[in-house]
Amino acid sequence: SRPQKVCLCPFLPVHPLKVSTCLYIIQHPAEESRVLRTVPLLAACLPSDKCKILVGRRFNEDRYPELATVCRNPSTLILYPGAEATNLEEVAVMSSSPSVMIIIDGTWSQAKDIFYKNSLFRLPKQVQLKPSISSQYVIRTQPTNTCLSTLECAAVALSIMEKNKSIQETILHPLQALCSFQLQHGAQIHHSKEHLLKNGLYDKPMPKNKRKLRRMELLVNNIKI
């Protein structure tokens, strides 16, 4: 769906990747209208039955019976960092059967709203990724240096679950091409909000909301939010 000279098809795998893990992407409606979103690239790398996208803010058992069944399955994981989350590497070592992983797609505030206001998403085992890589999605501002886009989260998670590092490289390839094309055509590299605040480069008005201001203070002081 892009002009020929910036087409990303040559950077996608020739055939969808063979994976046993099924992803459920819970996408906030606002993400649908974003031009440079990453979920379409992720979906293009995987078989259609291994990457299912559900758009919405509220998910209950009556409207989403399949999702409810998935959330109650003992092998289902939800990727959402926090005090209750286990590092995915530890879970993957103990897991031998194919798993289902739920990933929330949206800004951090949108993801938090979806996670805490839908009781279904507290049923699966909560997992998180170790902050070992920096985001390559440099055309969009992230809150911190270790925050990843949905595609990057999925790439790292699948490589861990499938015990295959090449999966991560394959899925990241179209994202790298996307960022390269955008930078060639006038886009600017976006440093994280954490980087801008720590280096005195944040040029937007500071928020008046005390909660948001406190979050910025935590970023500057390198305290995990």
UniProtKB/TrEMBL annotation:
Boundaries of every DTW domain copy: 1-187
Single GO MF descriptor: tRNA-uridine aminocarboxypropyltransferase activity
Catalytic activity: a uridine in tRNA + S-adenosyl-L-methionine = a 3-[(3S)-3-amino-3-carboxypropyl]uridine in tRNA + S-methyl-5'-thioadenosine + H(+)
Gene Ontology biological-process annotations: tRNA processing
Keywords from the UniProt entry: S-adenosyl-L-methionine, Transferase, tRNA processing
EC number: 2.5.1.25
Protein's UniProt keywords contain Transmembrane helix: no
PANTHER family, per the entry: TRNA-URIDINE AMINOCARBOXYPROPYLTRANSFERASE 2
Family: Belongs to the TDD superfamily. DTWD2 family.
Name of the featured protein: tRNA-uridine aminocarboxypropyltransferase
